[in-house]
Amino acid sequence: MPVCPHCRQRVLTPVDSSAAGQPVESELVATFDVADVDLGRGLQRFASGFLFKPADLSAGNLRSRLQRVYLPRWLVDCDVQADWRAEAGFNYQVVSHEDQFSDEARKWQSREVREMRVRWEPRVGRLARRYENVVAPATEEDEAVRQRLGDFNLTFAVPINGRLPDAALIRTANRSPDDAWTDAVPVLRQRAVAECRNACHANHIREFDWSPQYGTRHWTQLLLPVYASYYQDAEAVVHPVFVHGQTGRTFGRRQASFRPARNLSLGLGAAAVLVLLTSLFLIIAATFANADVLRGLGLMGVLASMGLGISAIVPVAYVWIFNRTQPPDPPF
Hints:
By secondary structure, the protein is α+β, with helices and mostly antiparallel strands. The chain has 7 helices and 8 strands, in the order βααββαββαβββααα. Strand 6 and strand 7 form a beta hairpin. Helix 5 runs antiparallel to helix 7. The two termini are about 20 Å apart.
């Protein structure tokens, strides 16, 4: 039975995506390609490297709770017609000669110098193309995924054709196709620029201007592979952890436990008080017994108690600073 990767609930409510105005068809999927050893290393790095970590946070626990989750992106097919104009750049070499005086040969010597230049020429034309599988974000958190997990290699994305299990967890798109279209238009323009450059047999193109007319748009989805796991902190709060399904890069909030740090601080504080009281007793006894050795031990004990008192603050301060510097739980 699938478990929600965010709230860990086993009772899930099916959503009819067609009723929400979204296409139910998922066309392509980027497969899980991360090597097992890379996956283990990523989880191990996430679960280690800091003090006072929760008992539940371990690479073994994270690995045993891994679920495969697919994050969506929109794919749009669209016919485009446009008149365009641009400046096409063509590389060419200029050969010249440069004279230099050689101290060793004691004479002037000439050497050939090759310089690459670009010749710009105006070009105009008409474009009529059908562009397929233009990618656009399907969720508001898409940019957060790129920043925290990295982007995905879509080169080897394959048609789904029943490749997904029936219980596959697919993140629901929260951006409508109309909203995502604004992100698809710049990608269409980039493809048009590349095609116009190739049509001109040019090496460069600049000052590209066009007046596009878009035909009927057909929307489907591309699915991106992510592993989802979780751990519980000392207060039984669940923190989701996500792993890139191709690179093994891991992201989540690492939460240090306050309770063991507090207990250690209390222990160090109690030891500081005990050492201080003992040291004061030695100093008082040395006064009556006129024993310099006891007085020296007492003074050393006072200094040691001060050091213990200062160190008692460190565990609690470490946990507070560490937790404050951690990113929030993943929004996706």
